[in-house]
Structure formats: structure tokens, C-alpha cells
Amino acid sequence: MPYTLHRGDALTVLKSLPDESVDAVITDPPYNSGGRTSSERTARTARAKYTSGDAGHDLANFPGENRDQRSYRAWLTALLTESYRAAREHAVVMVFTDWRQEPTTSDALQMAGWTWSGTIPWIKPASRPRKGGPKQDSEFILWGVKGTLDKTRDLYLPGHYIASQPRKDRVHITQKPVEVMRQLVQVARPGGTVLDPFTGSGTTGVAALLEGRSFVGVELSDHYADIAEQRLREAVLTQGDLDLAGPEQ
């Protein structure tokens, strides 16, 4: 199969990956955000942080959401350092974050060896209003490169994205839109490998497979790993059907 899904701790699994074996690292780590104090960070679950009180779904929580600022930076730096080692020359890294953790994420990315190359806003029309101030409708994708960007490819991606989180068939609290991820995974060369150390429900992997890339994922939660496995298998079948159908006339 064109994908491998590891179950376990991301840093432990990353250390086992071969040097220079992946072409892009695209990931949405637990932000460890939303709290100014220790009690605020530890008293609320991921669901409480990232969904509104009237949310019409009851999705499972995920672990790793209670680190303080310093430990989050150290942890993320270690993960991105191992990802850098596993990446080939010219590989691109893309890391989702929010406004609170954007400075820390840029620090970790650069401390790990990547050349920080920009910030891509992801604007979500269906998002929380803020009484007395601007609407909280954006997350950010910090991206960088190992060495230099490969400019031999005829690839031009948008500098921002506008898309809401999935509503129909949503299976993860922080699930990303497949249509956005299908564009992002194109930074990996055709036939290349995309790595996501925080696979969640598998959207990055689904996008990679649908775009003709291989996928290596890691997921700590057995609940979400089961969901990701099912979605990845379905993506393989879908891609196989597209290959059999051939190009559109």
C-alpha cells in the first residue's frame, strides 16, 4: 500500500525513520493553546478549547493539549528536528498553528534547521465571533524548506486559503478541509512521500493519496488511528478507481 500508519508517540516513531526519506512534512500538532495560566491550560479539554458550547457533535478528545509555552517549544523543536533529518533536500515543511502559538512555532521551525519561508493564513468563514473585537476566523500555516526551494517544478500555490472545517461527516475536533490539504500536499514531488507526525483522522494522508503521493503518518490515539486507517484505505480505493478510469477526455 502507498501509505504507512504508525501508532504511538510521534517523537519515538520519527527517530526510527530513515534519513532523507520524505519529500514534505505537513502537520497539525496539538497547539497547547487557549490558556494564559496553568489552571486554564489544564482544566479544559481539547473539545472545550476548540469547539463552541453549542456544537452539534460529540467528537472524541485527543491527548497532548496541556503543555506550557516553554515545554511546547522544546517539544515541537525536537519533533521538527527529527522531521528535518528524515526530509530530503528541498523538502517543504508546513505546520498549522493559531495566533497564540505562531511566534513559538516559528522559533521551533527555525531552531530545528528549517529555513522559515512564510506564513499562510487559513480563513474560516464559519468561525467564532468575538464580542467587542475582531472575529477569530483565522489559523496559520507556517512553512519552510530544507536547503532551498525546488524551483524547477511548474507549481504555483495560493498564499492564503478560505474554507470552513468539514460539517458533513466530520470525525475530528480540528479536522482540516480535504480541498485545502489536496493543494498543500502538492509541495511534495509527484510520487513523493508526505509525512504527518500528527495524523488525527487522516486528512493529510487522504489528500496525499488522492494527489498521487505516498504517505507516512503517526497517531497516538487508537480511536483516531482507527478512523484514519479506514479513511486511508478508502482513499487508496478511490485513487485506484481514478487510475483505472484514465484521464478525462
UniProtKB/TrEMBL annotation:
Kindly state which keywords UniProt assigns to this record, in alphabetical order. Answer: Methyltransferase, Transferase
**GO MF annotation, one:** N-methyltransferase activity
GO CC annotation terms, alphabetical: cytoplasm
Q: Name one Pfam family in it.
A: N6_N4_Mtase
Residue span(s) of domain DNA methylase N-4/N-6: 22-229
Ranges for the region named Disordered are 27-63
Q: Name one GO biological process term.
A: methylation
Source domain of life is Bacteria
Known EC number(s)?
Answer: 2.1.1.-
Q: Name the top EC class.
A: transferase
Q: Which InterPro entries match?
A: DNA_methylase_N4/N6, DNA_methylase_N6_adenine_CS, RM_Methyltransferase, SAM-dependent_MTases_sf
Instruction: Tell me which family the UniProt entry assigns to this protein.
Output: Belongs to the N(4)/N(6)-methyltransferase family.
> Under what name is this protein listed?
Methyltransferase
Organism, as annotated:
Streptomyces clavuligerus
